[in-house]
Amino acid sequence: MKIMVAIKRVVDYAVKIRVKPDKTGVETNNVKMSMNPFCEIALEEALKIREAGLASEVVAVSMGPPQCVDTLRTGLAMGADRGIHVEATTGLYPLNVAKIFKRLVELENPGLIFLGKQAIDDDCNQTGQMVAGLLRWPQATFASKVVLDKEKQVATVEREVDGGLETLSLDLPAVITTDLRLNQPRYATLPNIMKAKSKVIKKYTPQELNVDIRSDLEVVQVIEPPKRKAGVIVSSVDELIDKLKNEAHVI
Amino acid sequence: ASTLVLAEHENGSIKAQTVSAVVAAKSLSEDNSVSLLLAGSGQSLKDAAKHAASCHPSVSQVLVADSDKFEYPIAEPWAKLVQMIQQSGEYSHIVSASSSFGKNVLPRAAALLDVSPITDVIEISSSSQFVRPIYAGNALCTVRYTGANPCMLTIRPTSFPIPPSSADSKCNEAPISEVDLSTLDEDYLGKSRYVGHTSQDAERPDLGSARVVVTGGRGLKSAENFKMVEKLAEKLGAAVGATRAAVDAGFVPNDLQVGQTGKIVAPELYLAFGVSGAIQHIAGMRDSKVIVAVNRDADAPIFQVADYGLVGDLFEVIPELIEKIPEKK
User: Which residue of B has its CA nearest to A161?
Assistant: First the structure.
């Protein structure tokens, strides 16, 4: 069985982002870019399944500008077998990504797809669900535990939902999106980084895949959120209780 | 305009976050007619439908999908149901709360309908223009929807509070009608099956809608110490929250996590103990009305958003608070 994993290149999670003065977006020039943390978790899970002998190949897919190849190399250094880069210079919304992904699935025939539950830049939390919908495949979002039964071709997935954990059983092929607590992604070792340089990254364009990249969304502006003004420092519990009671009237 | 709101219900009642979605739907346009869509089976669905009919004066119709397929809120049949209803109903908007249910179902339904959904709307500027947080709330993005009907949204319940008057207005009961499910059958729907659910302590108020939230962070140091936070919450009649660090350290279960990737809360009073104030955490509680922070580190970023800060040892402060805070009324 083949596993496909989607990985997105985003502003590194530790960078304090800056909104552009012209309000068109967030500054990404000269900013450290990395693999979306949820995608790292998705890739790690796929690699663990392959290492357990339940899958034969892990294919990492990234979409966007030429620099996505760097992100794919990171994925290959973590252990993915090969990469696919769909080069697009215009912005891609989740629906565009899902349509391209569907075409790649038709070409590659994976038995399982992992995606991060959301990207930490646009915070959309949509792509996995949309890929599953377009393919008419079962989906398990926000996974915190995945158990694969190769014989029965079933994945049992524990999901983080409001008010607890839900367990679903999915017939393969299926789409799983990964949450924070699923695993601890590995670091790429130096020998693996060297090895990754010779792994294959196949390139496509949306046109070659016959996917029409139209958009039904338009960004009007991006601004900084209003700042909360800092309050006062109180010196004792008694003063705090007094303020909450007589000034804020909340207790 | 006409809007379909995807409803969540439990024990025969509509959830508060769904009523918030109705509030949001109402603000899409003046003459908006709002239909609530419920799915489930049995008596609890019937009770929920009755509640739905009078849960908010803006609800003009209640649609009920009664089938074993909807015994549990599974995405596959739900998305198919939404697609089916849209094909006969032609709604201009489809809205749900951005709960784990809404985020699971609505994007899948949007893919079936070939439209781009908009996640986590916090402000509705017009029927096609919306504000949503990006980069964990560090920027606000205004987007315009330019596609064909329906425009699909998930809304943050904390941004669309329910006016106190709407709960008891029984004056107009919306008509309830059953959805014809004869064309819902597709064999792929059986490929995902519900196995089980483990839920946490149901005695405390729900984190998402509590009036007071008491949160503990890494500073609590252990699951044992975290019980102090729970004790204080009990005294205040508050919900308990936690930071990602506290959840990852195993002090408390995952569903208590407040933050960008956890729950978004906006209570009247938010008390944070031993919370440093990571961006991701602040994104989940910044809309609280009054924020109190207690931390030993005077430079902790949490103090930059707190209305009242107390620099001190929380192992002394919490017991003192438990002792001195007045009993809840």
Answer: B100
